[in-house]
Amino acid sequence: MAENSHKTNGARTRTVVRALTGFACGAVLLAALPVAEGAPVSSNKKEDGFQSNVPAAVLLDADSDSILYEKNGDQLVAPASLAKLMTLEFLFNEIKQGRVKPDDEYIISENAWRKGGAPSHGSTMFAAIHSRVKVSDLLQGIVVDSANDACIAVAEALAGNEASFGRMLTQRAREIGLEHSTFTNSTGYSDPDLRVTAREMAELARHIIHTYPDFYPFFSQRDFTWNNIHQTNRNPLLGMGIGADGLKTGETSEAGFNLVGSAIQDNFRLIVVVTGARSDKERADEAKKLLEFGFHDFQARVLFAEGQTVGDAKVFGGDRSYVPLVATGTVRLMVPRNNSQRLLARIVYTGPVPAPITKGHAIGKLRVWRGENLALELALQAADDVGRGSMSQRAMDGATEFMIGVLRAGVSKL
């Protein structure tokens, strides 16, 4: 085993190197390159032999959380009605936590009616002004009709107004791991501060699918009638016979035509995001093309079995020098069929990790590249407890770290 490290805020970010063999996918190399912990790592490289015509796109395997295709996935874009997925996630979580009940009724205020209802000539469920609508019906209105009046009613009920609700959405986005997307309203109405990334929209969809299995079937609902007005689901993927069962479309003059979709074939679920398409036809065609590419050209390979040691982290002041690291569950990666692309993996953590360490403590990340594409990033945790070492062990670790610091300082002056 070898290590490479550099100093970050008093500790060093280490990248552990180890040659790994015997996996179903063949050899995997954990390579030593200095990657700063917390720095954004992304790739806009396209998979060989495949191109998408939209400005930004992501294809994600929902099971392994591995990227099959990415084009400008970290570019901030206007989401249009894709922002409603965050409104839905917030409401799903409120119901799951018991703070909201599906039978609760929210009022359609004059503001919600004028700005998002029939007078707005936009996407609406045509709820009557001052009427009281059950949360379960508002959910269907948002999912099937992309109803702005329903979204505004939810925002006003939970936060008092749209601006406050936007801040709550952004805070919730950070809680579930969306680090760059910012929300300012419940509907996706154009706002210079309302921005998302295709990668985070894919992660949001994955979170909804895995966290709210009782609510996810709403997204495959084909139609909804309210106030005697029948409307059909706007998601074009649902009628293509490709196993699609969600999620959301959006379009404005600023954003273009956007889509977050998901489909499942042979227990293999993919999530697709396209943004900035020039027409609803291009949006549908590109999303379908991406899904077909994933289903036909990729297969799952196991990198690490559940509980298998991925690598080790250096310990400071412990009764042992290293702690083994594991991931949660089986680590799988989607790899192209009949393709010998090299897999490159890096374990990145800030260390040495001070003892004592408790089993399950989060320590760093595993990042895996497929060719030149960052395909997988997941958290690692300690596989065992590590107790505090003796006085002599702690003294030896301190002296070692001091000498490493001196040597590195000397090298940096050369």
Give a brief description.
With 414 residues, the protein is α+β, with helices and mostly antiparallel strands. It is 27% helix and 32% strand.
Describe this structure in words.
- The chain is α+β, with helices and mostly antiparallel strands.
- It has helices at 84-96, 110-116, 135-145, 148-159, 162-175, 198-211, 280-297, 391-413; strands at residues 2-8, 11-23, 26-30, 56-61, 67-71, 105-107, 132-134, 223-226, 229-232, 244-252, 256-265, 268-277, 298-304, 311-316, 322-326, 331-336, 343-351, 353-354, 362-370, 373-382.
- The strands form five sheets. Strands 1, 2, 3, 14, 15, 17, 18, 19 and 20 form a nine-stranded mixed beta sheet that branches.
- Helix 3 (135-145) packs across helix 4 (148-159) and helix 4 (148-159) crosses helix 5 (162-175).
- The longest helix is centred in the C-terminal third of the chain and has 23 residues, at 391-413.
- The chain is globular.
- The two termini are 27 Å apart.
